Amino acid sequence: MPTEPIIEVKDLTKVYHMGGVDVPALRGVSLAADRGEFVAILGASGSGKSTLLHVIGGLTPPSGGHVKIGGKDLSAMSDSGRTDLRKRTVGFVFQKFNLLPTLTAGENIEIARHIAGNRNSGDKEFDSVVQILGIQHRLGHKPYALSGGEQQRVAIARAIVNRPEILLADEPTGNLDSENSLKVLETLKELNTRLGQTILMITHNPDAAAFCANRILRMRDGLIVDE
Hints:
Blueprint: E1 7-18, E2 21-33, E3 38-42, H1 49-56, E4 64-69, E5 72-73, H2 79-88, E6 90-93, H3 105-115, H4 124-133, H5 148-160, E7 166-170, H6 178-195, E8 198-203, H7 206-212, E9 215-220, E10 223-226
Parallel strand pairs: 3-8, 3-9, 6-7, 7-8
Antiparallel strand pairs: 1-2, 1-4, 4-5, 9-10
């Protein structure tokens, strides 16, 4: 008996209203991802891939269509339900690391546990995550003292410390040089293969998509045009 996809998107549209003009960003996107898959969405700037990721993660409401996460329709959820989804079920990694500059690397990771209400979860999960990401020796440093690759690995640790079912990565190597980009891609690939983490990554880089993903979707002008 086939299992239900963990991510299911059906006829998704998104229209932005800018200066009295309707600007379509998504034009009827449908896709599905199974548990444990690593799916890359490849496309140029303006293709709609970031908008798609933000709608799937509940950060942006769609204009039409449906998104189901673990069989639950986001459009049927309350605002608090979508907030809880982002705390517990979906982790985000962005091109900009978005670390709090006044906190150490360890504190930046810990704050995600506190926000999700996991204050009593102990140190086992925390230690496991930072060791997988190879940042255990950098936890006492603030972001300014870390390399770009280290900052992104801290951001990934923060995103997965609550063990979300899905990790959404928005151009995770966009601000990195080639050496640090490779380290981050290797980290994401290991999370997928070692932990079975479901990952949906958007990128404009075909080499990054080919290095990590089990499946590559190509977007252009708000549509998926190729797989």
